[in-house]
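Entry 12.
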Amino acid sequence: MELTHTRLLVDNYKDCFLFYKDVLGFEISWGDENSGYADFKFNSGASLGIFTRKQMAEAVGVEYSADITKVDRTALIFKVSSVEKNIKN
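Predicted 3D structure (tokens):
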């Protein structure tokens, strides 16, 4: 199992994208200001993703809530050789 990146779940995607790109100068490896998802790469090999919270909720099959106190704001993304082999019953 390998941690591939940290993903920030946001409601103000375009503002966040422009902040990381223009203010902090992060290198874009995927996405744009309108895509709803983007990855930023660093020389160290680390990666930061941003994703709209509403789309993440839809992707994992849960109801979206605008109440920020009751929802996830960050996700750790792991790469595994086989999802089935890594699920423990």
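Annotation: The first strand starts at residue 2 and ends at 10. The chain has a mean pLDDT of 86.
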